[in-house]
Amino acid sequence: MTVDLSVTIAGVRLKNPVIAASGTFGYGEEYAGLLDVSSLGGICTKGLTLNPRKGNPGIRLHETPSGLLNSIGLENPGIPAFLEEKLPALRRLGPALIANLSGADMKEYGEGARLLDGSPVDMIELNISCPNVKAGGMAFGLEPRAAAALTRAVRGAAPHKPLLVKLSPNAPDLASVARACVNAGADGLSLVNTFKAMAIDVRLGRPVFENIGAGLSGPAIKPIALRMVWELWEALRVDPACGKGAVPIVGMGGIADTEDALEFLMAGAAAVQVGSATFAHPGAMIEIIRGIGAYMEERGMKDLEELSIR
After folding, report:
1. Contact of 104 with 138, CB cutoff 8 Å
2. CA 25 distance to own-chain centroid
3. pTM over 0.90, yes/no
4. Residue 83 main-chain phi, psi, to 5 deg
5. DSSP code of residue 303
């Protein structure tokens, strides 16, 4: 029996629903010697800003039980350098390419979006949810009006590229932010980004990170992220402004194996992103792709739509 793992999100076809999450897969080539990168459904780039960023000083990663704290600070070469130096090789790897766009203010986001709109990336993921930068980032993703204004500006600057908006789990009313983004022009949503958290070094008697707060990812957040995907799917499918099936959701948050990915797909996600798991096990995404196919074949399922439990 042939199982069709392909999925189309905002007009972009992915050969399967497994995407390398932003900030965890570099620019693809870094993992080329460890797994068959061409087998992935998609690659989401490191967070990109218009101008180069050095990232945050001091410690950037700190392990916690069943999780990982990070405070990278969007270190990247800037969009012009990315387009010239990184994109050609990344494009040759084969999977659908999603550019994760961030910025410090509306103008920077807009100029970055304009450059990406003229590039061969397949899709833009608008990051309004990064908790590890002092300006921009999560500040746009906590309140519906701010999220809508930024989404509208990026949509206007990049009219030719499908647009995902990456939502923050730290928003007080996630559904309202999501609706605002969709009504402002988003073609889809991805969630969740990391949860704001912190750690203290008791030996030194001070916070581990210079920015105090950091982003928590990994298995510890999976049940909460899964609940948020479920609730958002429920909220949007009954929203007259969105319409059932009109807003694809890409789910993420602590996905480490096939069962985790299947839970998100059953909860309403059209695709999933895998992040922290890749650090511990570079082949995790390949195993998840194979595992989804095996699960469906065992149950006589022909395509991903049959995974839905609603």
Report:
1. no
2. 12
3. yes
4. -65, -35
5. B
